[in-house]
Specification:
By secondary structure, this protein is α/β, with parallel strands linked by helices. It has a single domain, classed as Enolase-like C-terminal domain (TIM Barrel, Alpha-Beta Barrel), CATH 3.20.20. Helix content is 35%, strand content 19%. It is built from 12 helices and 13 strands. It has a 7-stranded parallel beta sheet with strand order 5-6-7-8-9-10-11. Strand 8, helix 7 and strand 9 form a beta-alpha-beta unit. The radius of gyration is 19 Å and the shape is globular. The relative contact order is 0.17. It binds 2-succinylbenzoate (OSB) and magnesium ion. 2-succinylbenzoate (OSB) binds next to loops. 2-succinylbenzoate binds next to loops. One of its GO terms (biological process) is menaquinone biosynthetic process. Converts 2-succinyl-6-hydroxy-2,4-cyclohexadiene-1-carboxylate (SHCHC) to 2-succinylbenzoate (OSB). InterPro entries: Enolase-like_C_sf, Enolase-like_N, Enolase_C-like, Mandelate_racemase_C, OSB_synthase_MenC1. Pathway: Quinol/quinone metabolism; menaquinone biosynthesis; Quinol/quinone metabolism; 1,4-dihydroxy-2-naphthoate biosynthesis; 1,4-dihydroxy-2-naphthoate from chorismate: step 4/7.
């Protein structure tokens, strides 16, 4: 594999309870023959550090294990270098799909025993960062005007009272027919979480993502059944998919291919979630275009996937290529053509 380091900037920093994301740095990964593209864009909290990612990629050892046989890395375990593994696994999957003339989503669906052809578009949520009440209301209003029928609001960076006002303002701005979600990024203690989930339930939010810190499996299980779903994100990256499912800790798993170690691992996690009676959404870690389009292909391979957190391309002020998977009316169109699809041709050549 050949590596090329890149950085992309966010046009507007994304405020979250876990800090503000202003730029993303990672590696474009190309197969030796130049026939497959991947991306490894680590985000500490979800993945290894940039230095660990580079080391794993350069060692040709993106599982962080002694074996380079990715197929043998068991689904129940977590890769210690998931972003590196994502880069390799996406590049290999893209090369194989292009070789067989298949769209990546169709190849992934076939490998996962899902119906082929996969979907042509994926429903997506708008992502509204932390902000004042006025900023929150305006951002929700803009998203609905752009045609989104699902909006996710970042919470947990402010005091509970302030976030309750924002949750209400978002519902007022969205109207009754728009699905609303909130993402606390692990900011709350048990008592605050109970209170905020009750408010979210009263305002007809569909789920609250990561109300408590990542390691709190049984505590999340105890938060379920209050009239609003519990979705877990950081918990999957910090503990394991198995730990979350075994503890009945979530209604929804938030599956980030970059944090789970690649498209294959993500589809395996989704299958296990659904077998256990939970649902799953696919989201990015605010990645550059290659990983974002890869995540869109993963989502397209999941029948009846709920709205996914993939509308993150428009947050970037610079990218590796112009976006071949634009969002319109709350849907992301998956690029046509073999592999990742048309629009990324310039990236296959260094
Ligand atoms: O899910 C979305 O709407 C977009 C992705 C997102 O929120 C996110 C982006 C980068 C890092 C963490 C997160 C998160 O879901 O917590
Ligand atoms: Mg989240």
């Amino acid at each position: 594999m050949r590596l090329e380091r890149f950085s992309v900037e966010l046009a507007r920093p994304l405020g979250t309870a876990a800090g503000t994301i202003e730029s993303r740095t990672g590696f474009l990964v190309r197969t030796d023959e130049g026939t497959g593209l991947g991306e490894a864009t680590p985000l500490p909290g979800w993945t290894e550090s940039l230095a660990e990612c580079r080391e794993a990629l350069e060692a040709g050892n993106p599982d962080g294990s002694a074996s380079s046989d990715h197929v043998r890395w068991p689904d129940e375990q977590r890769s210690s270098t998931p972003a590196a593994r994502h880069g390799y696994s996406l590049a290999r999957a893209d090369a194989a799909a292009r070789e067989s003339g298949q769209r990546l989503c169709d190849a992934l669906a076939a490998d996962a025993g899902r119906p082929v052809p996969a979907a042509e578009s994926v429903p997506v949520n708008a992502t509204v960062g932390d902000g004042s009440v006025a900023e929150t209301r305006d951002a929700v209003r803009d998203a609905v005007a752009e045609g989104y029928d699902c909006v996710k609001l970042k919470v947990g960076a402010r005091a509970p009272n302030a976030d309750e006002t924002r949750l209400r303002a978002a519902r007022d701005a969205a109207g009754d027919s728009v699905e609303l979600r909130a993402d606390a990024n692990g900011a709350w203690d048990q008592e605050t979480a109970e209170r905020m989930l009750d408010t979210a339930a009263e305002l007809d939010y569909s789920y609250v993502e990561q109300p408590l810190p990542a390691e709190k499996a049984s505590e999340h299980a105890a938060l379920r059944g209050r009239g609003v779903g519990v979705a877990l994100d950081e918990s999957l990256a910090t503990t394991t998919v198995s730990a979350v499912l075994d503890a009945d800790a979530a209604d929804v798993l938030v599956c980030k291919p970059m944090a789970l170690g690649g498209p294959d691992r993500t589809l395996a996690a989704v299958r296990r979630a659904r077998d256990a009676g939970a649902d799953a959404v696919v989201t990015t870690t605010i990645d550059a275009v290659v990983a974002r389009v890869g995540a869109a292909h993963v989502a397209a391979a999941i029948p009846d996937v709920p709205a996914c957190g993939l509308a993150t391309g428009s947050m970037l002020s610079s990218d590796l290529a112009s976006d071949p998977a634009p969002v319109s009316e709350g849907k992301l169109r998956v690029p046509e053509g073999p592999g990742l699809g048309t629009g990324l041709e310039s990236l296959y050549r260094p």
